[in-house]
Amino acid sequence: MQVEGPDTNFVSDLALGSKKRRLSKTSVQEDDHTNVVSEVNKNKKKKKAKPMTCTLLKSVVEKGIGIKDVRDMTQYLLQAENNSPKWIEICNRSSLQKMIVLFIPGLQPDDFENGKNTFNEISDDNFKYIPGEIASTFHTFPVMAPGSKMTLFSPYNSFINVGLSKMEKINRLKELQKKKKITINDLVLSEQQLVANDYPLDSGDTNFDTDWVQTVDFTHGGSHIFALDCEMCLSEQGLVLTRISLVNFDNEVIYEELVKPDVPIVDYLTRYSGITEEKLTVGAKKTLREVQKDLLKIISRSDILIGHSLQNDLKVMKLKHPLVVDTAIIYHHKAGDPFKPSLKYLSETFLNKSIQNGEHDSVEDARACLELTKLKILNGLAFGIGINTENLFTKLHRFEVKTVLLNDMIIKNHTEDDSKGQLIRCVEDDETWTHIHENLNKDVKLIVGRIKNLERSRNYNKKPRKETPSLDASMVLHDIGQHLTQLYENATPGTMILIMSGTGDTRPWNNLSTELEFIQDKKERLDKRREREPEIVEAIKLARGGVASFTVK
Fold first, then answer.
1. Backbone angles phi, psi at 429, to 5 degrees
2. Are 65 and 121 spatial neighbours (Cβ–Cβ below 8 Å)?
3. Taking every annotated instance into account, which residue ranges of this chain make up the domain Exonuclease (predicted)?
4. Same domain, yes or no, for 359 and 485?
5. Ordered per-residue pLDDT tens for the chain, 553 residues
6. Same domain, yes or no, for 493 and 428?
7. Which of 137, 78, 132, 99 is nearest to 399 (CA)?
8. Would you list the DSSP string of 282-299?
9. Maximum distance among all alpha carbons in the chain?
10. Are 346 and 334 in contact, with CB atoms under 8 Å apart?
11. How far apart are the first and last CA of the chain?
12. Tell me, what CATH number does 280's domain have?
């Protein structure tokens, strides 16, 4: 039996009182401690983060680094990769606020102070066209373009594609192989793909003038799958249709016409189209309107058209059709998006056929598209798809890195914009600079662009299809210098600006490769290549010797 008397209660009260007093005292001490810790934390927060520093390691850099190394450094700086680069010492990478990467092909050694004949060592000889105080913050070093002694690959492609691990490759292949047997219907572009690739659609769009037609449903015998290719010439209003070829699924030519243009031709683009003034004058019997009427009697709306970047052919034909297989989409460019493989490359790689040697033939091109499609059906969805690399921007988006890519390869009038990245088409340098300046102080971590006027002014690029106004290299260089200066001045502290030529002087190699491309016979071309190997080796060596220069504000 428990006896509860006054003594027991008194003892309890004493004990509780003592405990209360202890708790009260402890509570005061803890409050004091919390306040002290809080003050310390406040003081810590007031301390500025240490700025990021980057130090080139001379002994490693001068042994040779490539575009891949610069790309891996970019991933490391943006915390999408934890393996630190061996050629540059980076401290406090978390202080990086923004990174701007600019490819400027056409840069030469004499564009830098005390320029030498080649880029082969780390240098304090900075870009001449930036004011001294800012120029002195830049660090210049050699970077090799990808390739071998006999080949030159795209430095830009190398930068924007990241190699996958063995396990990542296996997983990607498994995903693609889930559906082993496919039909042509599995290759038809979805409506979303048609929109993304700028195909003309029957959507009630008022931008289409009255010259446009669209296919309609009707019953017919024979093939319901056709491969189509067109040749075009240049007028003052743009490209116009001058030849069309249509091949059925049995590889038979069922329609072939030279087309009378209704506007004067300013450039026949013979090297690409195979069309000459004489051919059109003698052979062209039908107008575009007559060709459209013929096609609407052959192609039903429920038939499938096959072609390579077929949106361009449909536009010049002013024809809308909903069911399309595009070999530039069902096969991938080795560099990944946003690039598209050329039909010539696909034909040589997968069909072991050499086409477009010297000039194009629309029948030959249509048949190549048909064969590539049949090969894809036979081998499945994984065939012709790149599984060795991943687009750099796709990877960065997984790490919540916001990006802007400015590129002339992006589809015309098409801008992709989501929470993680923007793709913006920029054909001219002015557009590229404008978008860089606009995004300089926005919530974007990486901006990548290409400045192309310098290579145009120095004829580093192969001759374009369309004649461009001549440019003065010194004026282009001053323009580049002014923009880089403005970027540096307006950027927030912690911004890295990196410029790269990508390549060295490509002109000798461009001249040689153009000569070789014009040799139509494959054996003769290979023999000539062997004969001129010493020249090729020297030209490639010069072309691979590029330069990079960076600053961190």
1. -60, -35
2. no
3. 224-382
4. no
5. 333 333 333 333 333 344 444 444 444 444 454 454 445 455 555 567 899 999 999 888 888 899 999 999 999 999 999 999 999 999 999 999 999 999 999 998 889 886 665 666 676 668 899 988 899 999 999 999 999 999 998 899 889 888 888 888 888 777 777 766 889 999 999 887 887 788 988 755 545 678 899 999 999 998 899 999 999 998 888 899 999 999 999 999 999 999 999 898 898 888 778 888 888 888 888 999 999 999 999 999 999 999 999 999 999 999 999 999 999 999 988 766 667 899 999 999 999 988 887 667 899 999 999 999 999 999 888 889 877 788 899 899 999 999 999 987 665 444 455 667 888 889 899 999 999 999 999 999 999 999 999 999 999 886 554 555 678 999 999 999 999 999 999 999 999 999 999 999 999 999 998 888 777 677 888 889 999 999 999 999 999 999 999 999 9
6. yes
7. 78
8. HH--EEHHHHHHHHHHH-
9. 128
10. no
11. 83
12. 3.30.420.10
Distance CA 18, CA 21 (A): 5
Three-state SS for 188?
Answer: coil
Asked if residues 477 and 129 have their Cβ atoms less than 8 Å apart, the reply is: yes
Domain-embedded: residue 118: no
Residue 127 three-state SS: strand
Q: Give me the DSSP letters along 297-356.
A: HH--TTSEEEESSHHHHHHHHTEE-S-EEEHHHHS--TT-TT----HHHHIIIII-----
Q: How far is CA 160 from its chain centroid?
A: 7
**336 plus 197 within the same structural domain:** yes
C-alpha 417/C-alpha 438 separation (Å) is 15
Q: How many CB atoms lie within 10 A of CB 122?
A: 16
Look up residue 66 and give its DSSP letter. Answer: B
The answer to the question of residue 19 being in a domain is: no
Strands 324-326 and 213-214: unpaired
Can you read off the two tokens belonging to residue 505?
């002087």
CB contact burial 531-552 (16+ within 10 A = b; e otherwise): eeeeebeebbbbbbbbbbbbbb
Q: Is the Cβ–Cβ distance between 100 and 451 less than 8 Å?
A: no
| CB-CB contact of 435 with 441 (8 Å) | no
Which pair of structure tokens corresponds to residue 153? Answer: 């690959």
In this structure, is the dihedral angle defined by the CA atoms of residues 335, 340, 342 and 346, taken in order, positive or negative? positive
HEC per residue, 487-514: HHHHCCCCEEEEEECCCCCCHHHHHHHH
The residue behind tokens 């102070």 is 113
Same domain, 269 and 212: yes
Q: Which candidate, 501, 511, 502, 518, places its Cα nearest to that of 536? A: 511
Residue 416 and residue 289 in one domain: no
Q: Which residue shows structure tokens 């001379």?
A: 58
Omega before 146 within 30 of 0, i.e. cis:
no
What DSSP state is assigned to residue 118?
A: S
